[in-house]
C-alpha cells in the first residue's frame, strides 16, 4: 500500500493519495489546494482514482474538489453522501473497497458535526480531529465534549501501531502513530473531559510554558 502525502499550501494543509500497488486503484483525501499535483502524480504513477473523500466540510479541505472532479470525473464524497457506484452511504463503520484494499469510514464529530476519519489497513487519516501533538479546534462546550468522545471511544480504540496522517502539518513531524499520540499528546493525556476542556481553554499559556510552537 502506498501512502503519498502532499503539502498543499493553505494552513499547512495535507492531502493524501492511498494506492493499491497491485491493482493501481487509489483513493484521494482532501485534495484542498493542490488538486493538479495529485492528478499529475496519479497519472505519472499509473493510478486510477476510484474515490475522493473529504474529512469535513471546511473550505480549506474542500476547495480543490471542483478542479479534481473536472480533471478526473470523480466527485468528492463527504459525511452523509451516497457513493453512486455502490449505494453505500458515508456513515460510521461504512466500508468502501478499492482494488484489493478497503477504506473504513469513522464518524468522529467534534471539530465539526460531519468530521470523518478514514482507516485503510494500518493508516488512519484524521483530518482536523487529531493532529500530531494537538487536537482539532472546537468550542469549549458541545464540540469539545463530542471531540473527547470521538477521540477516546473511537480513535484510541485502534492499535498503537496505527499510523496517523492528519489534515494539517502542525506538529513536530507530519505524521505519527496512535501509540505515540496516546502517550505524548497533552490533550489525550487529560484524564477526563473537564480537564480536556480546561487545556483547550488554557492552550496558549500551556504552549508558552512548554515551549510548543
Ligand atoms: Fe477544519
- Radius of gyration equals 17 Å
First-residue to last-residue Cα separation: 33 Å
Q: Please describe the biggest sheet, giving its number of strands, its sense, and whether it closes into a barrel.
A: 6 strands, mixed
Order of helices and strands: EEEHEHHEEEEEEEHEEHHH
Record field, number of beta strands: 13
Number of helices: 7
State the secondary-structure class: alpha+beta
Strand order of the largest sheet: 6-7-8-9-12-13
Q: What percentage of amino acids are in beta strands?
A: 25-35%
Ions, cofactors and other ligands present here are: fe (ii) ion
> What average pLDDT do the residues reach?
97
Stretches with pLDDT under 50, minimum 5 residues: none
Helix content range of the residues, please?
25-40%
Shape: globular
Spell out the blueprint of helices and strands:
Layout: E1 2-9, E2 13-20, E3 25-29, H1 35-45, E4 48-53, H2 59-62, H3 65-72, E5 76-77, E6 95-98, E7 101-107, E8 116-120, E9 123-127, E10 130-131, E11 134-135, H4 142-153, E12 163-166, E13 176-177, H5 178-184, H6 193-201, H7 203-210
Parallel strand pairs: 3-4, 4-5, 9-12
Antiparallel strand pairs: 1-2, 2-3, 6-7, 7-8, 8-9, 10-11, 12-13
The structure holds fe (ii) ion.
Residues 56, 58, 111, 128 line the site of fe (ii) ion.
